[in-house]
Amino acid sequence: MRTITAAKLWDGSSLLDNPILTIEDGHIASIATGAAAGEHHFPGATLAPAFFDVHIHGAAGHDVMEATPEALGAICRFLASRGTGSFLATTVTAPLDMTLRALDGLAKLIDHLESIENKGAAARPIGIHLEGPFLSHAKCGVQPKEHLLAPDVAIFDKLYEAAGGHARLMTLAPELPDAIELAAHATKRGVRVSLGHSDAKTAETRAAIAVGAVSATHTFNAMRALDHREPGILGTVLTTDSLFAELICDGIHSTPEIVKLWWRAKGPERAILVTDAMSAAGMPDGEYHLGGFAVQVANGKAMARGVLAGSVLTLDRALENFLRFTGAPMEQALRLLTVNPAGMTGFANKAGSLAVGQPANLIAVDAEGKLVASFVRGERIAE
Q1: Which domain holds residue 29?
Q2: Within 13 Å, how many C-alpha atoms sit on residue 211's CB side?
Q3: How remote is the C-alpha of 132 from its chain's centroid?
Q4: CA distance 349 to 330
Q5: Is 276 one of the annotated active-site residues of the chain?
Q6: Could you please report the per-residue DSSP string of 302-367?
Q7: Set 11, 250, 276, 316: catalytic member
Q8: How many domains, the chain?
Q9: pLDDT of 210-231, one tens digit each?
Q10: Is 195 exposed, middle or buried (0-12, 13-18, 19+ CB in 10 A)?
Q11: Mean pLDDT, the chain, as a whole number?
Q12: Least crowded by CB within 10 Å, which of 48, 223, 325, 374?
């Protein structure tokens, strides 16, 4: 048994002063209040659920599409050290056979992790995010145009089956032919649809939302620009209250002013912070890979063929940046990395909150959002 204490605890819904968490066998045995200092004591800090990243391609020199125990293990250990407890392993557009192999490998690894009682002190992939191949040529960003495919239910079903039921989120450009049919089909199969890499106009975006689309992928980036007479996908995302919306809060993909605009539009119930991190996260400057192509990283910016290629962001840094850019209250900011991604993906039973009986996956942050400590199943992770 061990105890963790701090100035405050935010459990996903309410704020508690002077919390005392008791941990047994990697799970939360009790949550109480008191003045005593525990085995792990963090004065001035707030305890909160571990972060959940729904859009991440890799870290620690590895890409999720490698789909090997070594690659995924390195990614999971690094993410845990930065406060992330759960994530969606995110694919990138690639040749279809390469994507199918990666999905098969990821599915087997996820199944293996789910079957192990003591999963060790590392983050866990709890699903897969398909970023591609059903994206716009006009707004593909760094996604390889030669491997983009037209929306096709049969191809989607191949991807779904290869993922072994673990595909939980798919980015889709709603203006493409047959995209609305695919959005409806994916939704029926339990895959959440996120709108992105898109040049869609307003009507096309609304049509996708009407058949079940629930989120937007890295808002502002790889999207049709806002126009006051044709708001397009961006204007629709920002003004549809029911829609979640991702943001990469690194100060590179979006300026502080744009982060504030996004926050005012989406608010604490629908905003989601993501990293879109690639294999260079946690690594020195140099050349790395995203899927099957090379990316050059210098001064915190990842570029390929003159285009931004993901990021080297971690969610703890995203939280710090967001608080600094917006001045939002801590308990609202924490929702963007915990409750909201869990709610959007339907994984509220696996991530995003702290309660008795749950795995003790939690973080401690100071008043500025800086990560003080990270725990996975009650084990403190060394940075």
Answers
A1: 1-50+352-383
A2: 22
A3: 16
A4: 23
A5: yes
A6: EEETTEE--B---HHHHHHHHHHHH---HHHHHHTTTHHHHHHHT-TTTSS---TTSB--EEEE-T
A7: 276
A8: 2
A9: 999 999 999 999 999 999 999 9
A10: buried
A11: 96
A12: 325
